[in-house]
Amino acid sequence: xxxxxxxxxxxxxxxxxxxxxxxxxxxxxxNVKNFISPLPKRIDxxxxxxxxxxxxxxxxxxxxxxVEDLSSIFDDNINTFWEARQELPFVINLGSEIELMxxxxxxxxxxxxxxxxxxxxxxxxxIFASNDKxxxxxxxxxxxxxxxxxxxxxxxxxxxxxxYKYYEIYFPATFRSDIIRIYELDLNGCIKKSLWRFxxxxxxxxxx
Length: 208
Description:
Layout: H1 11-25, E1 32-38, E2 42-50, E3 55-60, E4 63-65, E5 82-84, E6 90-95, E7 100-109, H2 115-119, E8 124-130, E9 137-143, E10 153-157, E11 166-171, E12 180-182, E13 184-195, E14 198-205
Antiparallel strand pairs: 1-14, 2-13, 3-4, 3-6, 5-12, 6-11, 7-10, 7-13, 8-9, 8-11
């Protein structure tokens, strides 16, 4: 019998098909011709994106804290906020195993709740990046303007042009409080997907 596969398959899927056929039919692999050939590498890049949905978990200093709902930080609503009385730094981890990211802009919005809005606001943001979670590179250190006002939005450009799998967003201190409060944080940038494509032109299995 001849089996012809005319669709596009990934290398892993096609190998799985061959393996199952060999097991079920006890086929001599020398009789199998695999015509899978790689096509040129395709890189898909998408910019101007909100990449905050890649947030992984929240760390306070060396401890990992479970925070059920951080949506108020990313809900585009200056009337809501997230805050905590914890040992600093407060850390937001971003990461993806299959995509590369580049942060090119950070925006921090301050609420309109008087002195608490200012005093509890982070006074600094430090961004680290890595591709293996072992070696971390500082790519930006943002000093928040101490004259920031209630209801104000501050935008900061990130100079790095490199892509990474993982980021750590550090908030090491507030202006004048042991409570950290974040009304709104926007993380904008680009996503890059790097894929190898395989075309299965024809696979012929000869059963004797």
